[in-house]
Amino acid sequence: MSVETELPDWDEILGTEIDDYCDNLSRLKPDWVEGSISFQDARFVFRKVLQLTPRTIVEIGTASGFSTVILVHALSAVAKAGLIANDFRVVSYDISPYLYFDHARLPGDAARELLPADLLEHVSFRYPATAIELRQEFEPDSIEFLFLDGAHDHPWPALDLLGTLDRLKPTGIVVLHDISLPRVAPESARWGVKYVYDALSERELDKDQAIAEVPNSGSFFVPKEREWMRDRLLSVLYDYPWELEITPDYTTELLA
Question: Do 49 and 75 form a contact (C-beta atoms < 8 A)?
Answer without folding.
Answer: yes
